[in-house]
Amino acid sequence: MLTSLLELPTCWEQLQKTKKPVVMYGMGNGADHILRHLDRLAVPVQEFFASDGFVRGHSFHGKRVKKFSEIQAQYEDFVIVTAFAVRDEPTMETIFLLDQQYELYAPDVPVAGEDLFDRDFFISHLSQAQAAYRLWADERSRQIYRDLIAYKLTGKIKYLASTVCSRQEVFSSLLRLGPAESYVDLGAYNGDTIEEFLRYTGGRFSAVCAMEPDPKNYQKLCRRSESLGLFPGDRVRLLNLAAWDDRTELNFSSCAGRNSAVAASGRQIKADSVDNLLGKAPVTFLKMDVEGSEARAVLGAANAIRRHKPKLMISAYHRSGDLFALPLQIQRIQPGYRLYLRRFPYIPAWEINLIGLWEG
Q1: Which positions ≥6 away from 147 have C-beta within 8 Å?
Q2: 270-293 pLDDT, tens per residue?
Q3: Are 103 and 157 a contacting pair, CB within 8 Å?
Q4: 108-144 per-position pLDDT tens digit
Q5: Residue 204 bridge partners (DSSP)
């Protein structure tokens, strides 16, 4: 079923044995994360380059950041390692074009946690991965699952191309939201997912409960909700809280962006669970994108899932094990869900979504 994927060469193995110079496309936190793994493997990065519009004579890790044309002039051939996340089509097209011209890797490194999805990780979790494979409700999900594992092992973006679908497909063909949904949005960010929800329901709903832990994002959420005609009241709750499995306080790294997350250190924030906050109030659509806290948030919504069997849309990419651990967790909490896997356009393999539909 999945054991044939163990025959694939991993990107880390390929980078370790290459004789060609390794150059990195991108800077920042993602690059630092990849560099730590390359340092452990004694793989030197010779140069850093950025898109021409971002090159302004600055340096990264003591090296001047160059234009790609400079790299081409300096080396006859080289290996490219991409080190940033992107979803705009022109930049993704550029990366796919570079992949056709050069040996290119987009290493899969976790957004949360330290476990790297390498060969050893896959072998140690193979039985879980196999069990999750058997849960997928359609062949499209199984194909996406296989290709995502292949990508995570190899870092080759050719495996990502076949996994992409549109948001329209997910909302229209799978979720099929109606006019009387009770929507719970965990990780509501700046209100963009509430706006999307209203678009697919024609602005009609029974209730909206949105949780966003980052204070600056929460203010944006409130302003956007107000602009959409949503004001706190009987049907609308906007909460400056982190989604968790119980009421507590957590350390939080605040980035005022999508990557704000629970962390080992940082400011203290309040957290709570769906079950504590809603009690027995109905939930018909539960969405969560909580930057690596999905397993804790699912546990904190276990009673709601059992009682109301809501439609589920859960991010399944922040931690290396999310791809198999989260569907298995849903199955343990409430057997009978039909589970689907869909992914929206992104490099690397972000925006992976676990869709759950109750059919008994």
Answers
A1: 159, 160, 162, 163
A2: 999 999 999 999 999 999 999 999
A3: no
A4: 999 998 899 999 999 999 999 999 999 999 999 999 9
A5: none
